[in-house]
């Protein structure tokens, strides 16, 4: 019984000792640190065939790293790694980049963990002309990471891609200005391949600025011209002008200082017309007393003519109502004088006609008397010869 108890005690002590040794071993040896969320990531970019692009490999959630080694993998049939360069997590002096193998290695030189996050390193790729893939994947994976105590750190790897495009467009807005009669436009164009992405029309401006050319002022001897309308911006003829009639001469134009006020004829105008009628009646009565029946008929015609002239004079006198004061008196006086002159000339012509008509009649009487006398003389001589006297 006693031996059995002793064995059990020995077993318990042995187990406790083993646990103690295990704990001590763990405490004194290297440990592996599981960093919560520590990870590597790769940016994704676009590139043209034959073009060059850069890809950033970044570190996030850094738990504190003393040394790190990262391997890069990519599609070598489409991409060519031209260079690797250090980022901003480790100093340049502590990093080594091996482009041939695509490996990045960095170690702290001051025996302290580096705790910063950011760009770990940068990859520069050339897209080969024979690249067929629309996108090329780039992978990074952790080879090794540890802290200053030698503990291993787990960091997840990452991936990105390089998308191969026909053209990485360089977009620029171009403007075609509108003119007076044609529309313009604005468009967004790739300066590299010429592809158009957006178009907007600009309405025609119209002929806003105009000027008059070829204008000529009219004179009393020459016609004028209003001038042609031209567009100042494009020089196009918009509208032709028209001719301007000659200016009236000074003799035809009314005097500027004369009054244009319309007034009725005054008493002098009426009196002048009445005097004209009385003179005409007096001449008619005198002609009736001194002339023959035929003369009376002619005188009646003259009277009618005079009456018509008087009526015309009266009408002209009434028309002078639309003339100014100064012109009305002058024109009425001239009309009366002209009427009297016409009457006098008509009387004179009729008397001359009568006188000229009387001469042929007297000549005919003389011829008849002469003929009769000649006949009588002939008979007388003929009878005297027969009788022998």
Structure description:
This protein is an alpha+beta fold. It has four domains: 32-165, Sandwich (Immunoglobulin-like), CATH 2.60.40.680; 171-202, no CATH class; 210-244, no CATH class; 267-352. The protein is 36% helix and 29% strand. The strands form six sheets. It has a six-stranded mixed sheet with strand order 3-12-10-5-8-7, with no helix packed on it. A hairpin with a 7-residue loop joins strand 13 and strand 14. The protein is rod-shaped and about 235 Å long.
Regions with pLDDT < 50 over 5+ consecutive residues?
A: 20-35, 257-265, 320-328
**Binned strand content:** 25-35%
**How much helix is in the residues?**
25-40%
Order of helices and strands: HEEEEEEEEEEEEEEEEEEEEHHH
The DSSP helix count reads 4
Compute the CA-based radius of gyration: 69 Å
Mean residue pLDDT: 75
Distance between the termini: 254 Å
Number of domains: 4
**CATH topology name of the largest domain:** Immunoglobulin-like
The geometry reads as rod-shaped
Q: Architecture of the largest domain in CATH?
A: Sandwich
Q: Which structural class fits the helix and strand makeup?
A: alpha+beta
Largest sheet: 6 strands, mixed
Strand order, main sheet: write it out: 3-12-10-5-8-7
CATH class of the largest domain: Mainly Beta
Report the count of strand segments. Answer: 20
């Amino acid at each position: 019984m006693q031996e059995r108890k002793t064995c059990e005690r020995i077993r318990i002590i042995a187990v406790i000792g083993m646990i103690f040794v295990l704990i001590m071993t763990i405490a004194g040896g290297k440990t592996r640190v599981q960093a919560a969320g520590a990870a590597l990531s790769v940016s994704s970019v676009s590139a043209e065939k034959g073009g060059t692009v850069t890809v950033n490999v970044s570190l996030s959630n850094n738990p504190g790293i003393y040394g790190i080694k990262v391997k890069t993998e990519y599609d070598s049939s489409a991409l060519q790694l031209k260079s690797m360069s250090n980022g901003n997590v480790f100093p340049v002096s502590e990093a080594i980049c091996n482009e041939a193998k695509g490996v990045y290695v960095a170690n702290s030189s001051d025996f302290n963990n580096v705790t910063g996050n950011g760009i770990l390193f940068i990859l520069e790729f050339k897209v080969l002309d024979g690249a067929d893939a629309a996108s090329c994947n780039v992978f990074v994976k952790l080879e090794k990471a540890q802290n200053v105590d030698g503990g291993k750190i787990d960091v997840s790897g990452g991936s990105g891609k390089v998308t191969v495009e026909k053209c990485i467009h360089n977009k620029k807005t171009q403007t075609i200005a509108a003119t007076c009669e044609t529309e313009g436009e604005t468009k967004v164009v790739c300066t590299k391949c010429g592809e158009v992405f957006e178009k907007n029309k600009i309405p025609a401006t119209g002929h806003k600025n105009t000027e008059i050319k070829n204008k000529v002022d009219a004179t009393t001897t020459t016609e004028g011209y209003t001038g042609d309308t031209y567009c100042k911006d494009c020089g196009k003829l918009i509208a032709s002008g028209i001719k301007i009639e000659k200016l009236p001469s000074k003799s035809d134009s009314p005097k500027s200082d004369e009054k244009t006020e319309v007034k009725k004829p005054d008493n002098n105008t009426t009196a002048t017309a009445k005097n004209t009628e009385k003179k005409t009646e007096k001449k008619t009565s005198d002609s009736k007393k001194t002339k023959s029946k035929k003369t009376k008929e002619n005188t009646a015609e003259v009277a009618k003519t005079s009456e018509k002239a008087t009526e015309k004079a009266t009408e002209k006198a009434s028309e002078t109502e639309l003339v100014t004061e100064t012109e009305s008196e002058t024109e009425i006086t001239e009309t009366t004088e002209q009427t009297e002159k016409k009457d006098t000339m008509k009387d004179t012509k009729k008397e001359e006609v009568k006188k000229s008509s009387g001469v042929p009649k007297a000549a005919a009487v003389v011829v008849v008397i002469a003929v009769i006398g000649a006949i009588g003389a002939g008979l007388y001589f003929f009878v005297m010869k027969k009788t022998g006297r």
